[in-house]
Amino acid sequence: MTQLQATYDEHSGATEALAILAHELRNPMVAIQFAARALRDGELDATRVEQVRVAIERQVQRVYRITSDLLDVTHISTGNFALRKERVDLSTVVLGAVDSCRPTIEAGGYTLTVHLPRQTLHVEADPVWLAQVVVNLLENSAKYSEHGGEIAISVERGPGEASIRVSDQGMGIAADAMPHLFELFVRGGCARSSARAGMGIGLNVVKRIMQMHAGTVEAYSEGPGCGSDFTVRIPCRY
């Protein structure tokens, strides 16, 4: 690759990323603006006011999620933070992440099944960032699942490692998307809509966090319509 080609590719990638960001932020802003005008101009009954309130809240949550993802990847990429590793119970981390995702699970009508080991499973990790890994994987499964779909998360112990597996029966992942699934701003899979697909940040953050924990993440899907499985593994020395 020539220097000119490299410069062009870098510029093209940055332009595409900005276009994705603009698109992802514009849609909720338009919805919020429309809702605000309805409140300002219309004589709305109590039912309609509640509908508008819910719509505003939903769009604000979407903007918050986008900005949070951007901050996560910025912090990780620039190294402007340090892991605060400690001995943590993996089941406690997972349950905390599940609680954080409860609004998404309930809003989508998903059935979430949680399988935890009977014995305490300790790992050396930053509990905040490890919980973020689980949150991102659960949110990803929700994005690519139909309303009311089934999502499962399980924690297991293996030889010298612990694993967290998140699986769903959703849209699945196309074979040609699999090699690029964890790249930044790549939106793989078969989302129900572009609005649900997100910016392609969450899985990249998962990969980076696991690398910093000397761990791994891998994905598996038999293809479109066949659901997906994501498994993260982290060293377990206890």
Say what the CATH topology of the largest domain is: Heat Shock Protein 90
End-to-end Cα distance, whole Å, is 47 Å
The helix/strand class is: alpha+beta
What radius of gyration results from the CA coordinates?
Answer: 19 Å
Task: Tell me what the structure shows.
The chain is an alpha+beta fold and 238 residues long. It has 2 domains: 3-78, Helix Hairpins; 86-235, Heat Shock Protein 90 (2-Layer Sandwich). It is 51% helix and 18% strand. It contains 7 helices and 7 strands, in the order H-H-E-H-H-E-E-H-E-E-H-H-E-E. It has helices at 3-41, 46-78, 90-100, 102-107, 127-143, 194-197, 202-212, and strands at residues 86-89, 111-115, 122-125, 150-158, 161-168, 216-220, 228-235. The strands form 2 sheets. Strands 2-4-5-7-6 form a 5-stranded mixed beta sheet, with helices on one face. Strands 1-3 form a two-stranded antiparallel sheet. Strand 6 and strand 7 form a beta hairpin. Helix 3 crosses helix 5 and helix 5 packs antiparallel against helix 7 (202-212). The longest helix is centred in the first third of the chain and has 39 residues, at 3-41. The protein is globular. The termini are far apart. Mean pLDDT is 84; it is low at 1-11 and 190-195.
